[in-house]
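Lab manual, section 2.4: Encoding a predicted structure.

Procedure: take the sequence of the chain (327 residues), apply the prediction step described in section 2.3, and record the output as structure tokens. A sample record is shown.
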Amino acid sequence: MTLTRFGTAPDGRPVQRIALAAGDLRLALLDRGAILQDLRLAGIDWPLTAGASDLAAYLGPLRWFGAIVGPVANRIGGARACINGRPTRFVPNEGRTLLHSGAAGTHARHWQPVEVEAGRALLRLELADGIDGFPGNRRLEAEFVLDPPATLRLILTAVTDAPTLMNLANHSYWTLDPEPGIGGQQLQIAAEHWLPVEAGLPTGEIRPVSGAMDFRAGRPLGETEGIDHNFCLASAQRDLTEVARLTGRSGVRLTLATTAPGLQVYTGREIDSMPFAGHGGRPLRAFDAIALEPQLWPDAPNRPEFPPITLAPGETFRQETRFSFSA
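Recorded output:
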């Protein structure tokens, strides 16, 4: 375990890079945004997650790359919700929509490293009542644990002292081959349904998977275009369950298990890190990497038929995800 200076945030606060290692995995985190900045597998010469070595990239075009996004990940239509019977409005940041809780969401805040060991780091974020329009004094924690030989375990928890909304998600982008592009990689998802969208928001229909949206048997990502949709894994939080596999042409495989009832899949149609280079030494471009984001379903406050994202005092939001790698 090592801590090094990665840069300086706009508020003058130093940003630390936390390096962990255990078994065949090496992992680097940033305390800004609890960002998963780099991940390496023994015997593989390239990084398995997309990112950059320049903090300025994470302040700009890569602002969500690798971060814990929240307190409500994904989209809230109309930037409004009813919380504990009270209408609440937020400042939209995507047209009329609130995406990932706005410009000052958890991705843009300093998480305090409270426990750091060779293969484990616990980061904590305190959010005051009313920040970004969300009620409740909230404590969020992100625990990263490396389990040999090659598994990353991520446990996200949150508590509040007033009724609020909570839907945390890790927003890492994965790329399992040495050459750019995900087209030759194969994705398998254990989902029977998905959510169609209009202008990025669910229409309310829960549609059975078919054709290009059926990944149950696995299919090459080159056969798909512009996916940014939630796949419905369950109707509520559940026990840890294997839900997806991503396999590169190189033979590197990522197996994802989670307790979350949804998996947002984004194939990176709008990725553009210009003018900043990614880990590979050139700017990241469209379809260079894929985001697999375990979470609750999007726009749930405005869709009573979806699993709720409410969190009350005395309750604990908890999501566990395991990323297991092999080659």
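Check your result against the sample. The CA atoms of residues 72 and 167 lie 4 Å apart.
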